[in-house]
Amino acid sequence: MLEHFNFSNKVVIVTGGATGIGAACAEMFAQLGAKLVIASRNMERLSAKAAFIKQQYNTDCLPLECDVRDEAAVQNMVAQTLQHYGRIDVLVNNAGGTHMRPIESIDAARWHRSFAINVDAAFYCTQAVGKFFRQQGGGSIVNISSMAGEKGTLNGAAYSSAKAALQMFTRVCAAEWGPLGIRINCVAPGMILSDIAKEHLTASGIDIEAGIKSFPLQRAGTPEDVAQAVIFLASSAASYITGETICINGGPQLGGNRKES
Ligand SMILES: NC(=O)c1ccc[n+]([C@@H]2O[C@H](COP(=O)([O-])OP(=O)(O)OC[C@H]3O[C@@H](n4cnc5c(N)ncnc54)[C@H](OP(=O)(O)O)[C@@H]3O)[C@@H](O)[C@H]2O)c1
């Protein structure tokens, strides 16, 4: 069973891999022996994280500056990965971003920005890596959606719609590429206390402790909670799972009135 989680000699690309959930994924894959590419816009943060991963886990980690909303930049990032490692086994489409505001104040530019980072980017990365996976005869992709894309969230019309689109993109890719040995799955995190999420929640005046009390599991999630599910879906332990979205949220959808219990 443990052999399923041996990623030695596997090459994993994590977009947005220098911070938060992406960094937790990159570190966990590295711990399991994978060689990494972490790609995002801030080279300073990427280089620091790559140096940490190399030193801590004794594996290769290539930091690549790439705005994943730019199709040509994505193709270049994938070409550099192949030049450096000669193969790719796993793609984690993690880069994403949230801007919450009521529908009436979302202008077209904001709407398109939300789709550019949360959907278009995953489409470009999936196409570029998928081209190689099809030649290689297999590979695994994990997309990071959100509970906002599963259930919707107030003031999140652009974000929720984009993250829901990412779940549907996952399903259709899985259907089309399953016969080629390519699996594509998705995770939908709930309240995950990455640094940026803590900042957003505090700035929006959201009472984290009060929110947590309504969760059956009585705590917020950590980036590692999400990374563990990503590892499972990417691994051969999930070799008969494709097109799925797993919710990682502490169970608030299970209902019940916690005040009365
Ligand atoms: N935290 C939560 O509660 C939560 C809940 C549900 C879903 N999610 C999703 O989980 C993912 C990670 O979120 P997080 O909480 O870990 O926040 P985060 O630390 O801000 O992660 C986002 C990452 O995406 C990268 N990124 C943003 N725009 C990019 C671009 N144009 N090109 C390349 N990289 C870009 C950022 O790096 P640069 O800025 O350096 O480019 C950053 O490393 C996102 O898709 C988010 O929507 C998070």
Task: Report on this structure.
The chain is an alpha/beta fold. 48% of the residues lie in helices and 15% in strands. Helix 1 (20-31) packs parallel to helix 2 (43-57), helix 1 crosses helix 9 and helix 4 (108-136) runs parallel beside helix 6 (157-177). It is globular, with a radius of gyration of 18 Å. It starts with 10 loop residues before the first strand and ends in a 13-residue tail after the last strand.
Layout: helices, strands, pairs:
Layout: E1 11-15, H1 20-31, E2 35-40, H2 43-57, E3 61-65, H3 71-85, E4 90-93, H4 108-136, E5 139-144, H5 147-151, H6 157-177, E6 182-189, H7 195-203, H8 208-213, H9 223-234, E7 245-248
Parallel strand pairs: 1-2, 1-4, 2-3, 4-5, 5-6, 6-7
The structure holds NADP nicotinamide-adenine-dinucleotide phosphate (NAP).
Residues 15-16, 18-22, 40-42, 45, 66-69, 94-98, 117, 144, 146, 189, 191-192, 194, 196-197 line the site of NADP nicotinamide-adenine-dinucleotide phosphate (NAP).
Strand content: 5-15%
CATH fold name: Rossmann fold
Please write the CATH class name: Alpha Beta
Biggest beta-sheet profile: 7 strands, parallel
CATH architecture: 3-Layer(aba) Sandwich
Helix content: 40-55%
Catalogue the ligands: NADP nicotinamide-adenine-dinucleotide phosphate
Spatial ordering of strands, largest sheet? 3-2-1-4-5-6-7
Overall body shape: globular
Structural class: alpha/beta
Question: How many β-strand stretches?
Answer: 7
C-alpha Rg (nearest Å): 18 Å
Mean pLDDT: 96
Instruction: Write out the CATH superfamily name.
Output: NAD(P)-binding Rossmann-like Domain
- How far apart the termini lie comes to 39 Å
Count the helices. How many?
9
